[in-house]
Amino acid sequence: MTGRLASEFKYDIEARSLPDLDRHGRISRHEGARMSHSVPAASVPEGTVTGVEEYAVGNNGKYFAVGRKCRHLRADLAGGSIDEDGCLVCPWHGSKYDVSTGRMVRGPQGIFAKIPGLGMSFKALTRVIPLKRATIEQRGADLYID
Question: How far apart are CA 80 and CA 6, in angstroms?
Fold first, then answer.
């Protein structure tokens, strides 16, 4: 957010007062303000994932928003897919995430699946440090991510 012009983003602002703008027209952090990122719901049809700021936003029958970086090698999960269980699958090595908890439910696949304990250690890591999750709300034709 820092360093970007306020006009570059679409925000929903719920605050006790309006956010302060710096001399360059950028929104400065303001205590009491809550900013939401938004995206047209039509850009997230069922079975797809897209990137919205720091979130991978998807639709597995329900809209979800989770942190974009895989815990394995930090791949962009916005390029991932949704499997038949409704989980988010990493595009690089097939790690699988439960989007309701942010936890990895299957570790890295391919050559990484052959390394003893690797998948188990990443699953354990996400029990302690799951993917960040955000609330997502549909208002009209747009999705708002908090």
Answer: 29
Mean pLDDT of the chain: 81
Is 51 domain-assigned?
yes
Domains: count for the chain: 1
Phi, psi of 52 (to 5 degrees): -135, 105
Residue 63 lies in a domain: yes
**Whole domain around residue 53: which residue ranges?**
38-145
Are 21 and 8 in contact, with CB atoms under 8 Å apart?
no
Residue matched to tokens 């391919």:
110
pTM score, whole prediction: 0.73
Nearest to 88 by CA among 36, 125, 138, 130: 130
CATH code at position 51: 2.102.10.10
Does 132 reside within a domain?
A: yes
Rounded Cα distance, 34 and 2, in Å: 15
- The answer to the question of residue 54 being in a domain is yes
Among the listed residues 56, 53, 58, the one whose alpha carbon sits nearest the alpha carbon of residue 11: 53
